[in-house]
Design brief:
Length: 200
Amino acid sequence: MAFELPDLPYDYEALQPFMSKETLEYHHDKHHKAYVDNGNKLAAEAGMGDLSVEEVVKQSFGKNQGLFNNAAQHYNHIHFWKWMKKDGGGNKLPGALQKAIDSDLGGYDKFKADFTNAGATQFGSGWAWLSVKDGKLEISKTPNGENPLVHGASPILGVDVWEHSYYIDYRNARPKYLEAFVDSLINWDYVLEMYEKASA
């Protein structure tokens, strides 16, 4: 299965003022496209051109760094675009998700504080995650393109804290970007969809 650059699920202007058209154009059209192009080349060279992106991520981790970097970033971004929507965010969560966040993470406010803190304290480039592991929700952070798939967990929400995801709009104020992401951008319906798959 060759990697393909997905279309954005909304217009380039849809996430303004929290994420600008310029950021989406660079982030999707340039950065994500590069992961797809490089990933396809490296997957073919490694004899993994027919595998799903999840399999390439798992099989290349710790063995083929170049392929892993591009495949993992492709996987992360496929979902990152869907984890956001116009008029998203906020604390009105689908019931099943609210229940899990209450029982596993101490409620929405604690989730928000811990999730934004994970993103703010990730040194350098990386991601903050909400995942299902062993049937429970957990918050984590990873460097570069690494993701919970390679740590035995199923990611259901991730936020990109590479500078290209926020620098045009927020300069060096990463915490402000993370707050805007949680308050105004998260597509909780897609998080629920991933949660249900991970919990099945």
